[in-house]
Amino acid sequence: YKTFKFPWIGIKSLIDFTAFQQGNYYYLFIGEFIAIIFTFFLTIYTIFKIRLSYGIYMLVNLLLFTSTSFIMSTPRYILVLFPIYFCLAKIRNKILLTLVSLLFIILLIRLSNLYTEGDWAY
Fold first, then answer.
1. b/e string for 83-117 if b means 16 or more Cβ within 10 A?
2. In terms of pLDDT, which residue wins out, 27 or 67?
């Protein structure tokens, strides 16, 4: 039931759908929204600080991922955006690096837990 829509329509439907979810599904759809916002800011950073062509690549792909009537599996699609890893490699602040690493470890544990329970983890 996915059709081409403008990105803001897909994001709005994701937010509207999240309002009716409870339990693990609420957590997963909020994760979709956070992944979109995180990738958008990293795209802006890539455009100005790393390389314009990489930023355009990320922006076009982000628009492609969000241009559907029902946004789904965004974090999985974002994994192919290789400039994100360049942005994360530029983190020099030890505290920020520790916080980002801790966040990713917590997400790894939580999503692995959901997966091993047979639930949906993206």
1. bbeebeeeeeeeeeeeeeeeeeeeeeeebeebeee
2. 67
Taking alpha carbons only, the member of 46, 78, 47, 75 closest to residue 61 is 78
Largest interatomic CA distance in the chain: 45
Beta strand extents in 1-122 (DSSP E only): none
pLDDT bin (cut points 50, 70, 90) of residue 2 is confident
* Burial category of 10 from C-beta neighbours within 10 Å (exposed 0-12, middle 13-18, buried 19 and up): buried
Place of tokens 């400039």: 83
Confidence at residue 14, expressed as pLDDT on a 0 to 100 scale:
77
**51 neighbors 90 (Cβ within 8 angstroms):** no
